[in-house]
């Protein structure tokens, strides 16, 4: 029995609901990817078969989330035998899905390193070997479930069919396979960089590598966090809450994989659009900002006991804290700008640029000033380990995270309205490409902040020691900094204009003929303006 308190029940149910939503989205997107792959004559390569198989494995894995619905019924507990039976098939396909991503990496490395041999190998035998290796690894999951089975009462979730040492071995195997998966992708990328491969081959591999980063990254973060929460001494209720949070990370990353294939591969985009009956559209472009040198002031954690007085921490973090709020609101401003440009095109063209941008910057500044206000209004002299949330004391910590959650949720609205407007109108491909790039950046930025702030809110609501709270607060920073760090890379990969600008800045000797994608025409630009 978990013996959860009221707050822990509420947190668990909220996080499970979010996890179930990601699982549902993942089931739909991966089912579409699977069906489109096996029905299309354009996706018949060995690699396409493995990608389609991965999508099927993910669908079956995510369907296991249905059996967690017991958390909403009574006290949420069922016996471990029933849970093991219900999760038996999904657990097999968790391992199968992870190993399948490794198989795709091996396939890409083989095709790049030995192209002649790869083309001549018999397709049926080749895929049979891959599927046999996937099956062998996947069979380790039911082995652990049976060998270490213990009759008990559980709240049925992904790790619960593994009891005693079986849980640690399950986590260990997941960590090992995901770390190993990085190797063939890294080697294939190095091989591609050192050879004069076609732009098509590079684009295909980049799409697959991006999916791998999400898949493996999601699993590594979730499994590492699961291992951490079972090593830290905390109440079982808090452990369950954080376990559901791990599930949210994994299910989000799995759900987004088909979307990445759609947005980064012309082949998959055409096939998926044909399968869904959509008219063809195109790719992206954008702008956003946030101050990122605040973590430099966390370096005292490496010296002595890592603590400094709160006044010093507040003083050195005041500019970065303003930048945090300014960066978040700036993403909202971009969304409002895109919505205005699409819905009121003639007014948008006529508006004075200086006055327009001044209004945006003034609103950003007003919102950003709320951060130093909270720092001053609720300031308390004490010693802290200086991090982004540390300058906010007492009630201000809750108000700070609350404001972040609100502005990030509001940010979703103008992007959604703009996307619906674009879908309902005959807008130019250039406009559509710009907005898709912005939408992808917004997803990472807002997603990273929401994940981080919700985690901070959860760890300050749960009854855990300050030490454990401190460790988990640093984990929340990973989501934010990853979301911010990846934004320029998204601009580079999805926008012709930004790619050209980056290359001319970083590689002045690069000639236009080396660019892989056609620059947008002046006619397209004019239709946007």
UniProtKB/TrEMBL annotation:
GO terms for molecular function: G protein-coupled receptor activity. PANTHER family: G-PROTEIN COUPLED RECEPTORS FAMILY 1 PROFILE DOMAIN-CONTAINING PROTEIN (PTHR23360:SF5), G-PROTEIN COUPLED RECEPTORS FAMILY 1 PROFILE DOMAIN-CONTAINING PROTEIN-RELATED (PTHR23360). One of its GO terms (cellular component) is membrane. It is found in: Membrane. The keyword DNA damage does not apply. It comes from Pristionchus pacificus. Keywords: Membrane, Transmembrane, Transmembrane helix. Gene3D superfamilies: Rhodopsin 7-helix transmembrane proteins. It comes from the Eukaryota. This is G protein-coupled receptor.
């Amino acid at each position: 029995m978990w013996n959860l308190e009221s707050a822990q029940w509420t947190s668990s149910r909220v996080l499970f609901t979010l996890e179930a939503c990601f699982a549902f989205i993942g089931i739909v997107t991966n089912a579409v990817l699977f069906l489109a792959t096996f029905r299309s004559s354009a996706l018949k390569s060995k690699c396409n078969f493995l990608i389609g198989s991965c999508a099927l494995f993910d669908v079956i894995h995510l369907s296991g989330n249905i059996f967690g619905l017991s958390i909403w019924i009574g006290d949420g507990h069922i016996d471990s035998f029933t849970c093991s039976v219900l999760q038996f098939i999904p657990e097999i396909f968790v391992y199968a899905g992870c190993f399948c991503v490794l198989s795709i990496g091996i396939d890409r490395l083989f095709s790049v390193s030995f192209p002649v041999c790869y083309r001549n190998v018999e397709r049926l035998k080749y895929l049979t070997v891959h599927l046999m290796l996937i099956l062998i690894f996947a069979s380790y999951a039911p082995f652990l479930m049976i060998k270490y089975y213990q009759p008990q009462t559980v709240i049925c979730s992904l790790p619960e069919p593994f009891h005693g040492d079986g849980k640690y071995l399950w986590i260990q195997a997941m960590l090992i396979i995901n770390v190993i998966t990085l190797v063939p992708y890294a080697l294939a990328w190095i091989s591609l960089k050192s050879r004069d491969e076609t732009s098509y081959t590079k684009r295909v591999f980049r799409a697959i590598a991006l999916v791998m980063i999400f898949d493996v990254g999601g699993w590594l973060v979730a499994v590492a966090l699961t291992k951490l929460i079972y090593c830290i001494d905390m109440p079982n209720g808090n452990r369950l809450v954080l376990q559901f949070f791990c599930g949210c990370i994994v299910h989000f990353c799995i759900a987004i994989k088909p979307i990445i294939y759609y947005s980064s591969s012309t082949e998959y985009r055409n096939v998926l659009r044909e399968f869904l009956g959509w008219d063809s559209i195109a790719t992206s472009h954008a702008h956003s900002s946030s101050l990122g040198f605040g973590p430099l002031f966390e370096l005292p954690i490496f010296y002595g006991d890592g603590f400094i007085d709160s006044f010093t921490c507040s003083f050195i973090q005041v500019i970065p804290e303003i930048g945090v709020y300014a960066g978040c609101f700036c993403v909202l401003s971009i969304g409002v700008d895109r919505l205005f440009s699409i819905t009121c095109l003639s007014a948008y063209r006529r508006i004075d640029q200086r006055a327009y941008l001044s209004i945006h910057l003034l609103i950003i500044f007003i919102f950003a000033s709320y951060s130093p206000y909270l720092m001053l209004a609720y300031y308390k002299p004490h010693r802290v380990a200086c991090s982004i949330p540390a300058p906010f004391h007492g009630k201000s910590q809750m108000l700070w995270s609350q404001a972040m959650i609100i502005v990030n949720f509001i940010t979703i609205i103008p992007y959604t309205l703009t996307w619906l407007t674009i879908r309902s109108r005959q807008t130019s491909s250039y406009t559509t490409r710009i907005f898709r790039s912005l939408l992808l950046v917004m997803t990472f930025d807002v997603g990273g902040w929401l994940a981080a702030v919700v985690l901070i809110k959860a760890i300050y609501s749960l009854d855990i020691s300050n030490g454990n709270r401190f460790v988990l607060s640093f984990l929340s920073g990973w989501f934010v900094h990853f979301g911010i760090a990846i934004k320029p890379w998204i601009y580079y990969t999805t926008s012709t204009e930004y790619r050209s600008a980056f290359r001319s800045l970083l590689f002045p000797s690069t000639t236009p003929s080396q660019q892989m994608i056609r620059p947008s025409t002046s006619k397209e630009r004019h239709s946007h303006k």
